[in-house]
């Protein structure tokens, strides 16, 4: 059974990462959709760019919709893991599944050069979300109290720094979140 999926985000690459390395990292995804190169990864939605590699800006921009099966999520996770090793700093890729049941599933992949960068980026995202949500309802000082508490909670769950910083792991975390509206960017 096929499900429509939309993948959206940008991954910021280290200096000197060539297209061939990007395509190798994305190989699980590209193989899944039977695309030889990222330029072959066309979106079902004509107005969407697909997967674009911008060598000058050192960024992979993704806005892609496709029909996928059950094993797609694992292949995308594998690709995101591989991209982590090529990234300069953490970013997120949003994935929304649109099953026929109408119960959309929203996931975030946090991609970064190391667990610490991913953790800090996740902290910033959560604090920003809470700030936007609460500032409509309560005052700035109360919002600040809540965001300070959230920051402290993240501090208690910070990943332990590796004993040797010479090894860089590819990291991506999938966090299921609440459903969001379809194809909003």
Q: Biggest sheet, in brief?
A: 6 strands, antiparallel
**Which range best describes the helical content: under 10%, 10-25%, 25-40%, 40-55%, 55-70% or over 70%?**
25-40%
- Strand percentage lies at 25-35%
Please tell me the overall pLDDT: 85
State the secondary-structure class.
alpha+beta
* Shape by Cα distribution: globular
CATH architecture classification of the largest domain? 2-Layer Sandwich
Rg from alpha-carbon coordinates: 18 Å
Q: Catalogue the unreliable spans.
A: 163-184
CATH topology of the largest domain: Alpha-Beta Plaits
> What is the number of strand segments?
6
Order of helices and strands: EHHEEHEEHHE
Account of the protein in words:
This protein is of the alpha+beta class and 185 residues long. The chain folds into two domains: 3-113 and 168-177, Alpha-Beta Plaits, CATH 3.30.70; 117-156. It is 34% helix and 26% strand. The protein is built from five helices and six strands; from the N terminus they run E-H-H-E-E-H-E-E-H-H-E. The protein has helices at 19-25, 27-32, 72-84, 115-134, 140-156; strands spanning 3-12, 50-54, 59-68, 91-98, 105-112, 171-177. It has a six-stranded antiparallel sheet with strand order 2-3-1-4-5-6. A hairpin with a 6-residue loop joins strand 4 (91-98) and strand 5. Helix 4 (115-134) runs antiparallel to helix 5.
């Amino acid at each position: 059974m096929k499900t429509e999926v939309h993948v959206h985000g940008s991954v910021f690459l280290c200096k000197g990462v060539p297209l061939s390395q990007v395509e190798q990292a994305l190989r699980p995804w590209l193989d899944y959709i039977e695309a030889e190169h990222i330029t072959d990864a066309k979106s079902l939605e004509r107005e969407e760019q697909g997967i674009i590699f911008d060598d000058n800006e050192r960024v992979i921009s993704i806005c892609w919709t496709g029909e996928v099966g059950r094993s797609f999520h694992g292949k995308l996770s594998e690709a995101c893991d591989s991209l982590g090793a090529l990234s300069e700093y953490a970013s997120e890729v949003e994935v929304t599944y649109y099953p026929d049941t109408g119960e959309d599933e929203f996931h975030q992949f946090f991609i970064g050069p190391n667990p610490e960068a991913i953790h800090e980026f996740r902290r910033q995202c959560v604090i920003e979300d809470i700030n936007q949500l609460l500032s409509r309802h309560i005052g700035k000082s109360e919002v600040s109290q809540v965001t300070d508490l959230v920051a402290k909670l993240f501090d208690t769950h910070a990943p332990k720094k590796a004993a040797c910083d010479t090894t860089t792991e590819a990291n991506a975390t999938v966090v299921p979140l609440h459903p969001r509206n379809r194809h909003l960017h």
